[in-house]
């Protein structure tokens, strides 16, 4: 008889886990209060970032820290209440960003990133979603030769250690790819490996449709509670009660608070972010995904228009939106590319689920049999969803995993 599994959370991580398990013969129900891909997975930059072998570290140099304090940077904003609320995990994040600890974290994190393209590929094919995907890389643009040279050095290290491919573009070479860029931009790194997605939410929805075609079930309802009943689990929802063999928690930024009810206290925090879509000025066209690396925002030619995504905002998960960071990013972006009008009345707001050692939790819950965890992917949930699905499915079936999963175990905290 097929094992009965409930996956909580229909972002790209939860959908990918459900897809993998259903494909392997499990009987899977995927539960979320919203349709698949409508929360955190909806509002990201839409890049499957094969080049992102180094996670985002907390600034350690005093110059950068002092520049953040006035709270006017585009790439990072904070609210005092949010900083106080997350003081302990943020202090641990700062500690783990020391050169000694970060040096150990990078290869562990990179082992996940290296799986991203080959785990997305079969899901894209099964979902008939190739029309959403471009395999042309993306551009990281620079304003100063010094910053570009520093980044090229990092790119060379990523190439030598992790096989990352890139090309360096001067102003002339960049202008051939993006002729409408402003004069402040002097060059770029063209990351060649990554794939870009013209509608990230639609890709997650396509993966979910593929899951249901395999026989899986999507239940859109509120989760009321989960409790262990002997060797099985009872999942109570607003719609019905389910009794199953296993439960997977893939609730993204809500995982930490939700798991407290089962006796777990993970040091989770969030980096919030915003996006807005724009028209372009007549005759202007954006061809590639662009990150203004020295300022800290991204422009992407999505199906819905040119999407501007902000950097990080450190605040509590459910605090009201503050669109000033977006407005400041927009002001700079208009000097780089001829944006037109806003296409929405208000910005989309979401939150990246983070852990202080920059690595997700993927694996069994230490206190309960039949409970599995997959959350804390930070900036790279969209990139790492399918890899997480494959690895966790292997673990749940007692099969060897392609990489060492010890760095991602839940009991490391």
UniProtKB/TrEMBL annotation:
Coiled coil regions, renumbered to chain: none
Keywords: Oxidoreductase
Family annotation (InterPro entries): FAD-dep_OxRdtase, FAD/NAD-bd_sf
Ranges for domain FAD dependent oxidoreductase: 6-395
GO terms for cellular component: cytoplasm
GO MF entries: oxidoreductase activity
Family matches, as Pfam families: DAO
Record's protein name: FAD-binding oxidoreductase
Source organism of this protein record: Vreelandella andesensis
Phylogenetic classification of the source organism: Bacteria, Pseudomonadati, Pseudomonadota, Gammaproteobacteria, Oceanospirillales
């Amino acid at each position: 008889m097929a094992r009965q599994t409930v996956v909580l959370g229909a972002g790209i991580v939860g959908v990918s886990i459900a897809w993998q398990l259903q494909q392997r013969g499990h009987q899977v129900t995927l539960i979320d209060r919203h349709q698949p891909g409508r929360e955190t997975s909806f509002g990201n930059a839409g890049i499957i970032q094969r080049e992102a072998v180094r996670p985002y570290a907390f600034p350690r140099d005093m110059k950068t820290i002092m520049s953040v304090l006035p709270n006017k940077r585009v790439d990072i904003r904070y609210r005092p209440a949010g900083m106080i609320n997350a003081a302990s995990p943020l202090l641990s994040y700062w500690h783990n960003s020391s050169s000694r600890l970060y040096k150990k974290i990078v290869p562990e994190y990179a082992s996940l990133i290296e799986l991203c393209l080959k785990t997305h590929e079969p899901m894209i094919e099964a979902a008939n979603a190739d029309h959403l995907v471009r395999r042309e890389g993306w551009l990281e643009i620079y304003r100063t030769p010094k910053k570009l040279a520093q980044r090229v050095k990092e790119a060379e290290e990523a190439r030598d250690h992790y096989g990352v491919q890139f090309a360096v573009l001067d102003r002339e070479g960049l202008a051939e790819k993006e002729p409408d860029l402003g004069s402040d931009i002097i060059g770029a790194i063209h990351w060649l490996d990554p794939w870009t997605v013209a509608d990230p939410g639609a890709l997650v929805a396509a993966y979910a449709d593929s899951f249901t075609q395999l026989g899986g079930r999507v239940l859109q309802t509120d989760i009321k509670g989960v409790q262990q009943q002997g060797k099985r689990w009872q999942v109570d929802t607003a719609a019905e009660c389910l009794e199953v063999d296993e439960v997977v928690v893939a609730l993204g930024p809500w995982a930490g608070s939700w798991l407290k009810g089962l006796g777990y206290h993970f040091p989770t925090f969030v980096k919030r972010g915003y996006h807005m879509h724009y028209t372009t000025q007549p005759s202007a066209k954006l061809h590639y995904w662009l990150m203004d690396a020295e300022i800290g925002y991204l422009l992407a030619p999505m199906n819905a228009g040119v999407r501007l995504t902000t950097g990080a905002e450190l605040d509590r998960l459910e605090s009201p939106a503050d669109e000033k960071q977006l407005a400041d990013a927009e002001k700079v972006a208009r000097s780089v590319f001829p944006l037109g009008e806003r296409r929405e009345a208000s910005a989309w707001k979401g939150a990246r689920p983070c852990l202080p050692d920059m690595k997700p939790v993927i694996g069994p819950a230490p206190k309960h049999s039949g409970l599995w965890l997959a959350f804390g992917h930070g900036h790279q949930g969209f990139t790492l969803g399918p890899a997480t699905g494959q690895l966790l499915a292997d673990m749940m079936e007692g099969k060897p995993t392609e990489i060492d999963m010890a760095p991602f175990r839940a009991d490391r905290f």
